[in-house]
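Notes continue from the previous slide.

Worked example: a multi-chain complex. Inputs as given:
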Amino acid sequence: MGNISNLPIPFLVLSFITILCALYVVTSKNPVHSVLALILTFFSISAHYVLLNAQFLAIVNLMVYAGAIMVLFLFVLMLLNLSKDSEPVKSNLWGVAAAISAGLLLVIITASFQKTGIAIMQGNAPEIGLVKNLGRVLMTEYLVPFELSGILFIAAMVGAVLLGKRDGATVQEIMDLNNDANNA
Amino acid sequence: MLNIFQSLEISHYIYLSCVLFCIGLFGVLFRRNAIILLMCIELMLNAVNLLFAAFSEYMGDKDANGQMFVFFIMVVAAAEAAVGLAILVMVYRNTRKTDVSFLDSLKD
Amino acid sequence: MNSIGLILGLPLAGFLINGIFGKNLPKSIVGWLGTFTVLASFVIALGVFNDLRHAAIPSEGLHFKLFTFLNIENFNVDFSFTLDRLSVMMTLIITGIGSLIHLYSIAYMHEDEGFYKFFAYLNFFIFNMLMLVLGANFLMLFFGWEGVGLCSYLLIGFWYKNAEYGKAARKAFIMNRIGDLGLLMGLFLIFHQYQSLDYSIVLPKMADGSTSQAMLTAISMCLFVGAMGKSAQIPLYTWLPDAMAGPTPVSALIHAATMVTAGVYLVVRCEALFYLSPITNNVILWVGLATSLMAALIGLKQNDIKKVLAYSTVSQLGLMFVALGCGAYTAAMFHLATHAFFKALLFLGSGSVIHAMHHEQDIRQMGGLKSKMPITYITFLIGTLAITGFPFLSGFFSKDEILLAAFDHNKIVYVLSVISATITGLYMFRMFFVTFHGTYRNHHHSFDKVHESPWQMSLPLMILAVLSVLGGLLNLPSYLGHNVSMKLSHWLAPILPMAESHAEMSHNTEFMLVGLVVLLFVLVVLYTRNKYVSKNAVPEEDALTPSTGKVLANKFYVDELYDMVFVKPLELLSSLVDNMIDSKLIGGLIAGVSTLLLAISGLNKKIQNGNIEYYLTFMVLALALFLGFNLFF
């Protein structure tokens, strides 16, 4: 393991931001803050992708995660009218147990990797992560999985619609329900 | 940008990914709000994605296999988020709660 | 297709068609189909009978081998049939009376919803009965034997919605099963001894004297146990009165005319065997005599019209066995035939009465029916006269032949048989007078509604009445002249090589004995007429029966005795096993296992609290554990 001071500044900074935001995601009492922090995390991960010569992934990550999925999360949060007040709180004991479990796993995984050799990254040709190259691979070598993922999406979409649908329930009714829940 | 990697080792990305993954895991264990739980799962998936991209770079992967994998994980993650949130809305509708500790009917 | 195949196949076809399609066929087709298949069998059997009359070798019959049924090393049984003089006689009785009773049933069962089932069963019964008498080996006989048992069960329990009837059916089945076990053991012994079951092989070997006396006795006893079950002899007779739960045509066909005579047929078929085992012969003689007397005594106090007839049947079967025990095989067959005529007639007549009375069977509820039902009255009178031995009717000749044989054999047996025959007269006339004379006593159904039965019912009655009158012609006693007499004896003589002709007693003795019987008959008629017609007495109510009569009315408490000796100890034992071994030991073991499992799962349950967080935490910890284990060890 190399000396940490030898590492390039961008990597260090990005890693710092990523971990910080990630920690905020899991510790924030307010779900909306969590979502926003997660979006930040995704941005920094996208930056990592750029560093790793995966430019297209970086863009897709922003669009899919930060753009679509997190908006979906936000939307659900707003729809269900969840805020800091409704956030269930766990005892500290749980926090300790969870921290110990996660930390233990972290230590052990790290220790496992410690056994593997340390190697300098070879580096790709920069154009490998460009959309032109990826698109070619996707449409030739990965054509079948690509199509399958399309089917997966349709299935997920149908499932989500079915699950979300209630007989004759309108958005207004759901809002009313929420109000009832909050008033109660 | 090539020069950046002269001093970067794959292990740094491994550590970063592990830390992110374990933070996500901690969140899953610690939080009870199902939405935060889903978000933590997304975080864990992203940690893995990052590692894939790093390994793709590390292997000098000419066919971009690692990046392709990230791509498919994103697909799965998006599907999972959609269905998971739909289930969540459903659960909320029936129980008025998003607290997973109340969903203990597995017991019976 | 040869005649045996047709005789057997037609009722089977009737059974299959009625059984499978009967539900969707109109009742008229079902009924007439069932009747005509049996009638056709009868006609074919008549043709065969004619052929056999002119056969070159009288002891030979027709043979028909369908296929080899079993062929295991030296054990070879064919699915084959033989139609000789004995079986053609049985076949004629079965199909002849069978077709009459089918015809009768068309009207009798007309309103029953199980009409098609009834005819299917009846046809199936005819098929099985024919298989019994036509089989060329003991195994075929056994098939038929079991088949008629099954049909008997099905038909006794025909109105299965009545639980009592179902019980009666079961009782008959189980009682028969006890007898069947004896028969089966007999078959095993026969096979053990002769390595074959074919009559044509076994019977000559039995006759040639090479078999030890003990073996012959054992085999014959086993077969006789089978005969006891089927022919309702002491101690296995109690099922027959209960079998009256079945529809009346069934009682007439199965429990009077045909199936119950299977035991007699079996003994006659194995004449060589029984003739050579005097011990068994004596057992048969005394069992038959005891049955005859006991059933006759019980019959005196029965008030159910069918029960009286049932005990009468048991009594008459006992008389047949007396004849067999005396070695008078022809007399037994003769009485079998005439009994089939008049007992079928009586049963059908009682059925006609029951039909008219809307299923009232208690004779105390009847009376004065003669004006309303002239045909039934006259035919029933003929039947009664025939069974009680009115001179020159069928029963007179056949019973006298048995009595003569008994006289020849043993004077005590003779006296007891005469007593039994006299009692027969008492209870038959008692029933007859109470039913048809006097005044009408039923208050539930008005007398005006009592009606004569339709022609399908009265025609068989008339035919059977004619047969009952003329049945004696089969085997007129020798004192009536050699040209006309002893036809049946001559007919069966080739089949019964062992039975020596009886020492001719002087005609004077015969006349004297016959005269005695006729005298007794006249006294009986006068006594019963005086009591039940002139004094218009009615059998007393159950509660008022005096103590001796009570014993008779309760059938000597035989059912209760069996219940106490066999059923109660068994029940006690099973309840003991149930309470001690089953619930305590086995149940305890099983309960222990489940308690243990419950305890273990109670522990597990605390972990399985259904909370996802616990699961996740444990999952992560386990993951760390495995990875760590992998890492450090």
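Summary box: The radius of gyration of chain A is 21 Å. The mean pLDDT of chain A is 80.
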